[in-house]
Amino acid sequence: MKGKWEMKSAESEALRKVHVTLAKQLVSTEIVHHLLSAEILTEEMVDLLETCRGTFQKNTELLRLLPKRGPRAFEEFCRALDRTKQSHLTGLLRESVTEEEALCKPTQESECVTPAKKFCSLWRVCLDAGDGSGTFSVRPTTAQFYHEHHKQSYRMASRPRGAALIVSNEVFVGEGLGHRPGGAADTGVLRALLSQLGYRVTSVCNSPAQELETRLRDFALSADHRRTDSCVVVLLSHGVEGAIYGVDGKLVQIHDIFQLFDNANCPNLQNKPKMFFIQACRGDRTDRGVDRLDGADAPGCEECDAGKERERTRRGKLPTQSDIICGYACLRGTAALRNTRQGSWYIQALVKVFTERAHNTHVADMLVQVNAVIRDREGFAPGTDFHRCKEMAEYSIFEEMEGETQRKQRRRKTAAP
């Protein structure tokens, strides 16, 4: 039954390869009706598409659905493009299919990639041919768990739960920066994950540094944050320690990005969790790894604070930066690893853990589990510096994301025999 509902891998990859162009240029209203008549889409799917906000989001959702709608879906989609005078997109798709069929011949390939300049042309063929998104389901929180824990957690009652922004830079024109194949796969799975978690997702692709700063500032100042309970920002790009690149090769400082969302500049997000995830290199060094030795964990325990728990009031002062957690794909000075078809190691691990654990686990604890998933992964690229390479993610918390009650409970748990 599985084969009946799968599009050919070359066709699926072609849709993903030109995803951004299609999402921006596609006029999809008549195409959706054609696909419904051809029994590629169901009535429920059409209703889902109609609820999308804006043309770009509607086109993105349509492109997410197509690879799972059977072997006829690609040809029916191309037929609909021709009938609606969008043959230039048909030509783009068929050209991409031809290229993918040539690339997908059996070969020994790399499992990992970094955006290092001199290696960017080496990783054109990859292992996985799946569509990369929409194949998982986030487990819902049970009523019992909610009633037992909601007083110790941030308020998460708004619908949508929050606004999410995904920034993905893939095609660079800056000197010495290669393209980032696999970025579209990361964007696809992140959109699916965040949508299932209840976020309204916006994605921005291939932005120069100044435009990137403007987009982030506009997002931080959005009035939507007043009505929602949290915020997510994902940055996918080349980078160095403390900064990421725009596609023009100019840097945007991470500190400046955090500042846009702090309590002074973004009052609509005061006392609300702000989550950042950064998939970018923080240096050129490749982690060669060491032989594994098992050892007991020795977590630190903060000294318990004295006094009563502070009440949150409108007039109470806040630190300039608080309620922020940031997950980094790699350690300081090291390179972040990426598969050109499956996407980056960090985003794959992030999606896996959040899908399985978001219903009952604190974000910081999930990021610890993300580290564990990445720790066990090893690169395969014989003949290069990246063969048997390793990666280790990390995260940081600004003024602790947890409330005081929750911190005390975690301390007691740590100190328990």
UniProtKB/TrEMBL annotation:
Domain Caspase family p10 positions: 314-395
Q: Is Hydrolase included in the keywords of this UniProt record?
A: yes
Q: Return the InterPro entries for the record.
A: CARD (IPR001315), Caspase-like_dom_sf (IPR029030), Caspase_cys_AS (IPR033139), Caspase_his_AS (IPR016129), DEATH-like_dom_sf (IPR011029), Pept_C14 (IPR002398), Pept_C14_caspase (IPR011600), Pept_C14_p10 (IPR002138)
Domain of life of the organism in this record?
A: Eukaryota
- Keyword field: Apoptosis, Hydrolase, Protease, Thiol protease, Zymogen
Taking every annotated instance into account, which residue ranges of this chain make up the domain CARD? 7-96
Entry's EC annotation: 3.4.22.55
BP GO terms, sorted:
apoptotic process; positive regulation of apoptotic process; proteolysis
Please give the Gene Ontology molecular function terms for this protein: cysteine-type endopeptidase activity
Q: Which Gene3D superfamilies match?
A: 3.40.50.1460, Caspase-like, Death Domain, Fas
Q: Which reaction does it catalyse?
A: Strict requirement for an Asp residue at P1, with 316-Asp being essential for proteolytic activity and has a preferred cleavage sequence of Val-Asp-Val-Ala-Asp-|-
Q: Name the active site residues.
A: H238, C281
Broadest EC class?
A: hydrolase
The chain positions of domain Caspase family p20 read: 160-285
Q: Which CDD domains match?
A: CASc
Q: Which family does it belong to?
A: Belongs to the peptidase C14A family.
What is the name of this protein?
Caspase-2
Q: Which organism is it from?
A: Callorhinchus milii
Traced from the root, the source organism's taxonomic lineage reads:
Eukaryota, Metazoa, Chordata, Craniata, Vertebrata
